[in-house]
Write a structure and sequence with these properties.
The complex is a heterotrimer. By secondary structure, chain A is an all-alpha fold. Chain A is built from 20 helices and two strands. In chain A, strand 1 and strand 2 form a beta hairpin. The longest helix of chain B is centred in the middle third of the chain and has 26 residues. Classes of the chains: A mainly alpha, B mainly alpha, C mainly alpha.
Chain lengths: 488, 177, 100
Amino acid sequence: MNVVPQPSFLMVDWWALGAVIALTVGCLALLVLEFLPAGERSSRGGVISLLTLGVSAYAVLRVAQDRRSLFDGMFVHDGMTVFFTVLFCAIGILSVLMSWDYVKRTRINQAEYYALLLSSVLGMVIMAASNDLITIFLGLELMSLSLYVMVGFRRTRLESNEAALKYFLLGAFASGFLLYGIALLYGATGTTDLGRMGAFLADSPVLSNPLLLVGGLLVLAGFAFKVAAVPFHMWTPDAYEGAPTSVTGFMSAGAKAAGFAALLRFGLKAMGPLEDQWAPLLSVIAALTMTVGNVTALLQQNLKRMLAYSSIAHAGYILVAIVAGGTTGAGAAVFYLAVYSFMNLGAFAILTMMGQGRDERVLVSDLHGLGFRRPLLGVAMTVFMISLGGIPPTAGFMGKIQVFGAAIEAGLIPLVIIGVLNSVISVFYYLRVTVAMYMREPEGEPTAISQGLPALLCVVITLVLTVWLGIQAQPLWVEAQRSVLSLL
Amino acid sequence: MVPILFLGFAGLLIATALMVVLHKNPVTSALFLVLAFVSLAGIYLLLHAEFLGMVQILVYAGAIMVLFLFVIMYLNLQHDVERGLAIAVRRGIGWALGALLLLAGGTLLSRGWALGPVQPPVADPAGGNAAAIGQTLYSKYLFPFEITSILLLVAMVGAIVIAKGHSAAPPDSKEGA
Amino acid sequence: MIPLSWLIALSAILFVIGVVGVLVRRNAIVIFMSIELMLNAANLAFVAFARHMNSLDGQIFVFFVMTVAAAEVAIGLAIIVNVFRLRETILVDEINLLKG
């Protein structure tokens, strides 16, 4: 029997794995501490989650400059991993802040809610950090299973249940496609390691190999589902509308970023040699995704549903950046993901405050008169909306500049024209929200606003980030470009 | 001998899988699925994946399908009523799409395909298939193995959170149904 | 040795049967069982490739997929049971409160 070599772990490896370890420990701690009684108003779960996420981000940042490949390449610690781990921790922290009072007033089980939030972040980190299709698949399932449960967390609410069922069935269906694609790629290349797969394809560009073609298409379909790209977007509006609002915010930012992180790694590292083949297909998907998302968003009265279609549209913009390729294109995609996460989480944080008790008030008409009654929320919502619409001087504008700049550089003029036209369309429905807040009077009783310092803090943080990144985009842009260097 | 056994298992697998999809009664569908999993386990044995063959029967045909049957019987589901034009149209589209997929796949694969790099054949490991899998699982695949442990924990927590008994409170929905 | 083309053809047929099942059935549990067929088709492909490439990796993947499937079943059936408790139906086309 051959002796298995003992892996020799260095201190830096422990720090690199810090996020994974901390998130696991935090998740377990939340569940174990549930044995100690705590009142319904206790904030224990939130505090532990914030600590865990903070420690995770710190551990990764501590060894940010190191480059390690652990577990035979299953877990790589590179620029991409560092950037996305910090981004996921930030998304997690903002989501915890916006959930703080929301879970209390809707009487959601706090310990399980936060434990699943942490395990979901763990799945995202694994997706972004793994260099092997099998580990990516496991990370994706860890994230998805946690999210299915979180979507259905309001067990007695019919909409929440229905959303969980639809999200689950379609998600499992998509997993089936992804897995079959991985199986075929394994057969065509003899490996699931992205680096080795890329090297094999570069040596022998066997494009005529149907195993490779079908496998690649199936994997692409699986990822397209997770990032909500047309034609795999059908689940998005229902899941977003039915889920508890704080969960919608969390998944719209986190699941999308994780899906794109895995797609970037897979597309550039494994399928990089075949870029000429998949780029045309991806540009068609990008154009369709932008158009369908924006046009359908125009018709929505429910804000969560509108933001769902808007998130589909934003997936389209990010796909444009990926098609553009190179450091600029991939960097623009990463940059846009970070920017989108912040402005979107801000908008959802405001939505979690609408309504009181177990109520949820998320129609456009529920916003009537909000701008004058709660000036801070009104201004913040306006900034998030113009940022989502891509109007200067906001972060969203800088994101669009980077994306379309990269696309022009790559000579994708038709795609840029479609993208800009779509941005113009999107301004209509984003501004409709502002109009509702400032120029309409509420019919009858104005919507009650829940008080909550943590959610307000989340709004302020995202507001500052949205404005600051609109003026000072350079630091984040440099980081985003550096993060994708290891893929090219 | 092996090809004949294979053809037998393959025929059984396709027939039972079709019955899962075609049969109106969910309980019968589930029982056919058990048979499908068992014939798949037979194919695994023929492919010298003895450990997987056993696990397939224990986990899939055993644990997973028992859960399915338990839930179907707990919900007391009867035959699905599947009549009406909309359902017929949907069924037609579904089968047509399936045939199209199979045709496309068949055409592509018949044009000739290539397998990835083939490693030199190894003698059967001393401790058998299970020992070899264990060795690899706890060395090269340690990281994904640890992830699966968290995955199972999440499944446990999630299932309990969602399915635990309701309080007497009525559903709080817009409709109040 | 069983020819690889037979195995791949068998796994493709199994996968397509699963896909069709998801598309044509209305009962959430039967849809879910069809998804299990799809996962098993992928497993069969993994084992077949592993056998013909003399590598053990494919068998390990199947082991992981089975774990994932078990976890998915636990959560999926919990969601289905809860939906049934509130709605008295699990026919997917009768569950349609959410509409745009």
